[in-house]
Amino acid sequence: MTNGTATGEYDSDNVFARILRGEAPCKKVYEDEQVLAFHDIRPEAPYMFLLYPRAAMKLEGIFTALATPFRDDLSLDERALVSFVDRQISSGISGIVPCGTTGESTTLNFEEYCTVVRLCVETAGGRVPVIAGTGSNCTTETIVSNVAPSMALELYNLHVLGKIDKAKRVSGNLAALSRVLFIEPSPSPTKYALSLMGRMRPKVRLPMIELTSNSKIAVRNVLETLDLLQAVHNQL
Hints:
With 236 residues, this protein is mostly helical. The chain is built from nine helices and five strands; from the N terminus they run αββββαβααααααα. This is HIT domain-containing protein.
Protein backbone atom coordinates (compact mmCIF):
# COMPACT_ATOMS: atom_id res chain seq x y z
CA MET A 1 0.00 0.00 0.00
CA THR A 2 1.32 3.46 -0.88
CA ASN A 3 1.24 5.87 2.02
CA GLY A 4 -0.81 9.04 1.48
CA THR A 5 -0.03 12.55 2.63
CA ALA A 6 -2.73 14.18 4.73
CA THR A 7 -3.30 17.89 5.18
CA GLY A 8 -3.93 19.16 8.68
CA GLU A 9 -3.49 17.48 12.05
CA TYR A 10 -4.92 14.12 13.05
CA ASP A 11 -4.88 11.82 16.04
CA SER A 12 -1.84 9.55 15.65
CA ASP A 13 -3.76 6.65 17.19
CA ASN A 14 -6.88 6.78 15.01
CA VAL A 15 -7.63 4.24 12.31
CA PHE A 16 -6.71 6.54 9.42
CA ALA A 17 -3.29 7.27 10.91
CA ARG A 18 -2.63 3.58 11.46
CA ILE A 19 -3.67 2.76 7.88
CA LEU A 20 -1.49 5.51 6.41
CA ARG A 21 1.50 4.23 8.44
CA GLY A 22 0.87 0.70 7.18
CA GLU A 23 0.10 -0.61 10.67
CA ALA A 24 -3.46 -1.66 9.79
CA PRO A 25 -3.44 -3.79 6.61
CA CYS A 26 -6.09 -2.35 4.33
CA LYS A 27 -6.58 -2.30 0.55
CA LYS A 28 -6.58 1.14 -1.07
CA VAL A 29 -9.39 1.21 -3.66
CA TYR A 30 -9.26 4.81 -4.89
CA GLU A 31 -7.00 7.87 -4.79
CA ASP A 32 -7.08 11.35 -6.30
CA GLU A 33 -5.96 14.85 -5.29
CA GLN A 34 -8.82 15.22 -2.81
CA VAL A 35 -9.36 11.85 -1.16
CA LEU A 36 -8.00 8.41 -0.35
CA ALA A 37 -10.45 5.49 -0.08
CA PHE A 38 -9.83 2.17 1.66
CA HIS A 39 -11.91 -0.89 2.42
CA ASP A 40 -13.33 -0.67 5.92
CA ILE A 41 -11.14 -2.89 8.09
CA ARG A 42 -13.98 -3.83 10.43
CA PRO A 43 -15.13 -7.45 9.84
CA GLU A 44 -18.76 -6.42 10.39
CA ALA A 45 -18.57 -3.86 7.55
CA PRO A 46 -16.93 -5.69 4.61
CA TYR A 47 -18.72 -3.64 1.93
CA MET A 48 -18.08 -0.18 3.34
CA PHE A 49 -15.23 2.23 2.72
CA LEU A 50 -13.13 4.57 4.80
CA LEU A 51 -12.62 7.94 3.11
CA TYR A 52 -9.68 10.09 4.11
CA PRO A 53 -9.84 13.64 2.70
CA ARG A 54 -6.55 15.20 1.61
CA ALA A 55 -8.12 18.66 1.78
CA ALA A 56 -11.35 20.21 2.99
CA MET A 57 -14.33 19.89 0.64
CA LYS A 58 -16.98 22.59 0.45
CA LEU A 59 -20.38 20.97 0.05
CA GLU A 60 -23.35 23.20 -0.64
CA GLY A 61 -26.42 23.28 -2.86
CA ILE A 62 -28.64 20.37 -3.91
CA PHE A 63 -27.24 16.84 -3.89
CA THR A 64 -29.41 14.15 -5.49
CA ALA A 65 -29.62 10.77 -3.75
CA LEU A 66 -29.73 8.82 -6.99
CA ALA A 67 -32.15 6.05 -7.81
CA THR A 68 -30.36 3.02 -9.26
CA PRO A 69 -31.77 1.92 -12.65
CA PHE A 70 -32.38 -1.79 -13.26
CA ARG A 71 -33.26 -3.69 -16.42
CA ASP A 72 -36.37 -5.84 -16.70
CA ASP A 73 -34.35 -8.81 -15.38
CA LEU A 74 -33.33 -6.62 -12.39
CA SER A 75 -29.68 -6.46 -13.46
CA LEU A 76 -27.92 -3.11 -13.21
CA ASP A 77 -28.72 -0.85 -16.18
CA GLU A 78 -25.35 0.83 -16.69
CA ARG A 79 -26.34 2.78 -19.80
CA ALA A 80 -29.42 4.25 -18.09
CA LEU A 81 -27.31 5.17 -15.04
CA VAL A 82 -24.75 7.08 -17.12
CA SER A 83 -27.49 8.94 -18.99
CA PHE A 84 -29.34 9.73 -15.74
CA VAL A 85 -26.23 11.09 -14.03
CA ASP A 86 -25.32 13.23 -17.02
CA ARG A 87 -28.84 14.67 -17.18
CA GLN A 88 -28.78 15.46 -13.45
CA ILE A 89 -25.52 17.37 -13.82
CA SER A 90 -26.75 19.13 -16.96
CA SER A 91 -29.78 20.28 -14.97
CA GLY A 92 -27.47 22.17 -12.61
CA ILE A 93 -27.50 19.84 -9.61
CA SER A 94 -24.66 20.52 -7.13
CA GLY A 95 -23.62 16.93 -6.51
CA ILE A 96 -24.78 13.31 -6.60
CA VAL A 97 -25.04 10.61 -3.93
CA PRO A 98 -25.15 7.10 -5.43
CA CYS A 99 -25.86 3.96 -3.42
CA GLY A 100 -27.93 5.51 -0.65
CA THR A 101 -31.27 4.13 0.50
CA THR A 102 -32.98 5.72 -2.52
CA GLY A 103 -30.50 3.77 -4.63
CA GLU A 104 -31.56 0.47 -2.99
CA SER A 105 -28.01 0.03 -1.72
CA THR A 106 -28.90 -2.93 0.49
CA THR A 107 -29.85 -4.96 -2.61
CA LEU A 108 -26.58 -4.25 -4.44
CA ASN A 109 -23.75 -6.75 -4.21
CA PHE A 110 -20.20 -5.51 -3.80
CA GLU A 111 -19.40 -5.60 -7.51
CA GLU A 112 -22.56 -3.67 -8.38
CA TYR A 113 -21.83 -1.11 -5.66
CA CYS A 114 -18.35 -0.50 -7.08
CA THR A 115 -19.70 -0.30 -10.63
CA VAL A 116 -22.32 2.30 -9.70
CA VAL A 117 -19.79 4.46 -7.86
CA ARG A 118 -17.23 4.13 -10.66
CA LEU A 119 -19.70 5.06 -13.39
CA CYS A 120 -20.91 8.05 -11.37
CA VAL A 121 -17.36 9.30 -10.83
CA GLU A 122 -16.42 8.76 -14.48
CA THR A 123 -19.58 10.40 -15.79
CA ALA A 124 -19.30 13.34 -13.41
CA GLY A 125 -15.75 13.86 -14.61
CA GLY A 126 -15.02 16.37 -11.86
CA ARG A 127 -18.00 18.57 -12.76
CA VAL A 128 -19.71 17.93 -9.40
CA PRO A 129 -18.79 16.05 -6.20
CA VAL A 130 -19.77 12.38 -5.95
CA ILE A 131 -20.46 11.10 -2.44
CA ALA A 132 -20.91 7.34 -2.28
CA GLY A 133 -23.65 6.35 0.14
CA THR A 134 -23.17 3.67 2.79
CA GLY A 135 -26.79 3.06 3.72
CA SER A 136 -27.60 6.26 5.58
CA ASN A 137 -31.09 7.78 5.39
CA CYS A 138 -31.86 10.27 2.62
CA THR A 139 -33.89 13.47 2.91
CA THR A 140 -37.09 14.20 1.03
CA GLU A 141 -35.45 17.01 -0.96
CA THR A 142 -32.79 14.77 -2.48
CA ILE A 143 -35.44 12.23 -3.49
CA VAL A 144 -37.48 14.96 -5.20
CA SER A 145 -34.43 16.11 -7.15
CA ASN A 146 -34.32 12.76 -8.94
CA VAL A 147 -37.52 13.77 -10.70
CA ALA A 148 -37.28 17.58 -10.73
CA PRO A 149 -33.64 18.64 -10.30
CA SER A 150 -34.14 22.07 -11.85
CA MET A 151 -37.07 22.82 -9.55
CA ALA A 152 -35.14 21.70 -6.45
CA LEU A 153 -32.18 23.82 -7.49
CA GLU A 154 -34.45 26.82 -8.09
CA LEU A 155 -35.83 26.51 -4.55
CA TYR A 156 -32.32 26.40 -3.09
CA ASN A 157 -31.16 29.42 -5.10
CA LEU A 158 -34.23 31.47 -4.13
CA HIS A 159 -33.58 30.80 -0.46
CA VAL A 160 -29.92 31.77 -0.84
CA LEU A 161 -30.97 35.03 -2.52
CA GLY A 162 -33.56 35.73 0.18
CA LYS A 163 -36.49 35.66 -2.25
CA ILE A 164 -38.77 33.94 0.24
CA ASP A 165 -42.13 34.67 -1.45
CA LYS A 166 -41.00 33.11 -4.72
CA ALA A 167 -39.39 30.26 -2.81
CA LYS A 168 -42.71 29.51 -1.09
CA ARG A 169 -44.44 29.07 -4.46
CA VAL A 170 -41.77 26.66 -5.68
CA SER A 171 -41.84 24.89 -2.31
CA GLY A 172 -45.59 24.30 -2.69
CA ASN A 173 -45.02 22.51 -5.99
CA LEU A 174 -42.20 20.44 -4.54
CA ALA A 175 -44.35 19.55 -1.52
CA ALA A 176 -47.02 18.11 -3.81
CA LEU A 177 -44.36 16.12 -5.66
CA SER A 178 -42.79 14.95 -2.40
CA ARG A 179 -46.11 13.69 -1.04
CA VAL A 180 -46.81 11.58 -4.10
CA LEU A 181 -43.26 10.21 -4.19
CA PHE A 182 -43.95 8.73 -0.74
CA ILE A 183 -47.44 7.47 -1.55
CA GLU A 184 -45.88 3.98 -1.27
CA PRO A 185 -42.48 2.91 0.07
CA SER A 186 -39.60 4.73 -1.63
CA PRO A 187 -38.08 4.47 -4.20
CA SER A 188 -40.94 2.72 -6.06
CA PRO A 189 -42.92 5.95 -6.72
CA THR A 190 -39.75 7.78 -7.76
CA LYS A 191 -38.76 5.05 -10.19
CA TYR A 192 -42.23 4.98 -11.70
CA ALA A 193 -42.12 8.75 -12.16
CA LEU A 194 -38.71 8.45 -13.81
CA SER A 195 -40.05 5.73 -16.10
CA LEU A 196 -42.80 8.10 -17.28
CA MET A 197 -40.06 10.62 -18.00
CA GLY A 198 -38.03 8.11 -20.01
CA ARG A 199 -35.13 8.07 -17.52
CA MET A 200 -35.20 4.43 -16.38
CA ARG A 201 -37.45 1.41 -15.95
CA PRO A 202 -39.69 1.28 -12.85
CA LYS A 203 -38.02 -1.93 -11.68
CA VAL A 204 -37.13 -2.37 -8.00
CA ARG A 205 -35.59 -5.32 -6.20
CA LEU A 206 -37.22 -7.30 -3.40
CA PRO A 207 -38.34 -6.63 -0.74
CA MET A 208 -39.57 -3.57 -2.64
CA ILE A 209 -42.38 -3.99 -5.18
CA GLU A 210 -43.46 -1.88 -8.10
CA LEU A 211 -46.14 0.76 -7.68
CA THR A 212 -49.80 -0.27 -7.60
CA SER A 213 -52.30 0.94 -10.21
CA ASN A 214 -54.00 3.63 -8.10
CA SER A 215 -50.68 5.08 -7.03
CA LYS A 216 -49.47 5.13 -10.63
CA ILE A 217 -52.43 7.32 -11.50
CA ALA A 218 -51.65 9.66 -8.61
CA VAL A 219 -48.01 10.01 -9.64
CA ARG A 220 -48.89 10.68 -13.27
CA ASN A 221 -51.46 13.31 -12.27
CA VAL A 222 -48.92 15.26 -10.21
CA LEU A 223 -46.28 15.10 -12.94
CA GLU A 224 -48.81 16.37 -15.48
CA THR A 225 -49.95 19.15 -13.13
CA LEU A 226 -46.35 20.32 -12.72
CA ASP A 227 -45.73 20.04 -16.49
CA LEU A 228 -42.88 17.63 -15.87
CA LEU A 229 -44.05 15.23 -18.54
CA GLN A 230 -44.55 18.03 -21.04
CA ALA A 231 -41.00 19.22 -20.34
CA VAL A 232 -39.69 15.74 -21.14
CA HIS A 233 -41.73 15.61 -24.34
CA ASN A 234 -40.20 18.91 -25.45
CA GLN A 235 -36.69 17.50 -24.90
CA LEU A 236 -37.30 14.45 -27.07
